Each structure stands twice: as C-alpha cells, then as structure tokens.
C-alpha cells in the first residue's frame, strides 16, 4: 500500500468505540508515523527483492563461467547447476522434480531453468518494472560502463524480453548516445563484444575531445 492510499484508508476508518464515548481521533503525528512505517516496509521489501535478483544474476554468471571453462555438455548443465543449489532454492528444486522424477526434471534446458528460477525469485510486478527499464535504458552522460553492466543484468533477469541475439545487439546499440550510435551501426558489428568495443572506442574519443576542449577553454 502506497503512502497516499494508506492515508486515504486511515481517513476512511470508522471511529472505534471501547465505551460509550468515541475513541480519540488519530493525531496528525500518528498518521504520519503510519505512512512512514508503510514506506519503510515497502523499501525493505524492495531491497530484499533486489538482493534476490542480484544474487540470482551472480549465480547465473558463475554457473555459465563454469560451463564455459569445463566445456559442459548442454544435456548436463541442469544436473550440474541444480547440484549447487542450497537452502530455499534447493527445496524449490526438489519440490519441482518430485512429481516428475529427477531424471525427467534434469532434461529441461538451462534456459528453461533460468526462466523458472527468475519467475520464482523475481515477482512478475518486479519483472515488468525491469522490462520497462530495459526498453528505456540509455547511456547517462559518458558512463558507458554502468550502461553495459545494467543492460546485461536486465537481459539476464528478463530472459523473454529479447528473443534472439540480433535483437539483443539492436537493443544495446539503441541505448547508445546519438553521437556514437550511427557510427556503431555503420561498423556492422557481428557480435555483442564487437559492438561494445566499438562503442567504447568511440566514447573514449569523445571523452578525450571534450577534455581537450575544456583545457583550451580555460587557457
């Protein structure tokens, strides 16, 4: 409940009678405290959700790094990944596998496992907010590094948001400043790594040019 609806709810509350006389009306300070408590609870819940989301991203990244280094076969990825689950996540996996059997459960793809875990630990309302952020994500100033990190985080947490690699790269380039977007497109990068390297090189040129211009302006 947001602060405004909370205040509206408090205003609509009928007076509570403990005797023949009405209880004292709530003071403005009491109302403000209710609002503050509601806001604090909302922020705490949001922080917990973000902590789970970030933890999930890190687990995805670490697991995929192991896959890459060990040349893990596609059919073995889920078996390996679920073998590293602990606590609540392990309980969730056991509950998922029990009705169909562990062998059948291990036959799902790594992509499907990521989708299931994301749905479990990132509420749909949060996913919707992240999807909206993804579509509106752009480079702030010259901070390309932060943009890249957040772009990948959102892409991992919203696996259904971009259906193929080409669309992923198109979305990445679309969030670049206009000053370099056209040049990146003209370079026709074939991979995300190429697109990032080209964007970084162009951004470095802009930063260097701006620095020289600033120095000349102060002379």
TrEMBL record:
Coiled coil: none annotated. The keyword Nucleotidyltransferase applies. GO terms for molecular function: RNA-directed DNA polymerase activity. Keywords: Nucleotidyltransferase, RNA-directed DNA polymerase, Transferase. It comes from the Eukaryota. Residues 80-177 form the Retrotransposon gag domain. The keyword Manganese does not apply. InterPro entries: Retrotrans_gag_dom (IPR005162). This is Reverse transcriptase domain-containing protein.
